[in-house]
Amino acid sequence: MIEIQALTKYYGDRKAVGPLSFSIAKGEIVGLLGLNGAGKTTTLRILACDLLPSSGSVRVDGLDVVDNPDDVRARVGYLPDHPPLYDEMTVAEYLIFAAKIRGLTGAEARKRVDEVTISTALRSVRDDVISTLSHGFRQRVGIAQAIVHKPQLLVLDEPISGLDPVQIVEMRELVRNLRDEHTTLISSHFLSEISQTCDRLLVLRDGEIVASGTEEELSTRLLEGGSIIVTVRGDGAHAKRLLSTIKDVRSVEIVGGAPHASITTLRVDAPRDIREDACRTLVLADIGILELTRSERELESIFLTLAQPDGRPENGARA
Amino acid sequence: MRNALLIAGRELRSYLRSPLGWIVASAMLLLDGLLFQVGAMGGAKLSAQVLADFFYYMSGITMVGAIALSMRLIAHEREKGTLVLINTAPIRDSEIIGGKFIALFTFICGVTLLTAYMPALIFVNGRVSVGHILVGYAGIVLLGAAAIAIGLFASAFARTQVIAAVLGAAILGVMLLLWMAAKVADPPVSSFVLALALHHERQRAFMNGVLRLDNVVYYVAVTYFFLLAAIKTMEARRWR
Lengths: 319, 240
Prior knowledge:
The complex is a heterodimer.
Chain A: E1 2-11, E2 14-24, E3 29-33, H1 40-47, E4 55-60, E5 63-64, H2 69-75, E6 76-79, H3 91-101, H4 106-119, H5 135-147, E7 153-157, H6 165-177, E8 183-188, H7 191-197, E9 200-205, E10 208-213, H8 215-223, E11 226-233, H9 236-244, E12 251-258, E13 263-270, H10 275-284, E14 288-294, H11 296-307
Chain B: H1 2-17, H2 19-40, H3 47-70, H4 75-80, H5 83-87, H6 93-113, H7 117-125, H8 130-157, H9 161-176, H10 178-184, H11 189-196, H12 200-207, H13 213-239
């Protein structure tokens, strides 16, 4: 669906993207991950034909973005980081306008607007003026305008930015529901969020891809294990001792729990993936495992390791 | 053309739904009325002179109104982030610029039409030809179109509305004052510079009810030139 070969984009003398090469198959949901200034938005704008590349080849559904921009635009739905909304219009008027400028007739546009207001849960506000909508609804309207013409490729630039936790869950569900009809490329700088929505991740740093794969593949390859969180029922101190005996374990610490219910939460740190060993050890000792997960801090470690050479956020990163 | 009309329709509705459109229209009509009463109708004059003075004042107000509204056409959308919606739709840049121009031109024509009662008042105590009125209005409309095109180019070029307004006003000012430059130049340069002046000789003919083809062609050419410049500016911005 997307084939990018040796793409570069310069703003004056400053290189924003490239050389960048990747491809995305039809029906995939792919996440583009990187810190601010990594080149995510520039890459997405080129795919949406809002910008032209400095060099390289960008093809959408076999069509070159430089040679056939209008044909590409008709196949792409784009939600920029700030939804492009006309505040004085109602939701329905705006979506009908967005559909018509993508080539739909009046009747087709009205029919599609009925459908997308249902699929994006906008029915209750379809006659409301956009300036009166909350941030979450505005983001939904942004997605609705991107899908109103049934594009083959959906390009979403940080769709969860600024949303509250409930809205994030709803947005994640919405994006997942779109997978049957669209190939989707989503950018974000939240690994924890994007990894739950996407089939595959592309990590961008200084305009180049530094890693790709699933979250599991990335963490295995880069961290070779890391921290896990284990919640057990029973003697926490005993569990700690047992976990410490597992080969390669560096440290075990009790990080929480509910002593009155004999529940203890432990963090186990090791240079390799020891989840299987931990399970076996605790089960053989007849200690009940209530939960065993990768540490959330782990996700951030993966991200920082990938996004920054020294693993620390860079001050003054460009937008 | 369909896309240009879609953009024009949305733009025109936005004028009518925002205070800015009503404020500019009201201010233009108020100033037209005041200057007609105080300036054009002041003192003993021939009816034709009253009409010529009315068109003179109105031409200035139309130019200011056109620049005030055109500054926002592209720059405002760029500032608000809505330009990306039409930039990523399968629409040519010429349709975007054409649509914006049609919208503001329609608005300015509408406001101009609402002043028609003023020339009609001349008939109460005087006599002017309908042809003089029509030619005068044709001059105003053509001048308005040129001013909109200049403002639209400035709006496509500038990052913000304020810069667009300053740039548009500067271009308009230079084109208005070319007749002064012509005074200090020697022939044939002076004739050439004078021919480029936006208002002085060109508009005077319309004010006096004289319809000349070269004046019409001049305003159409200025409008076309700046619309083309705006289209090319939009195209160039995608390469930046």
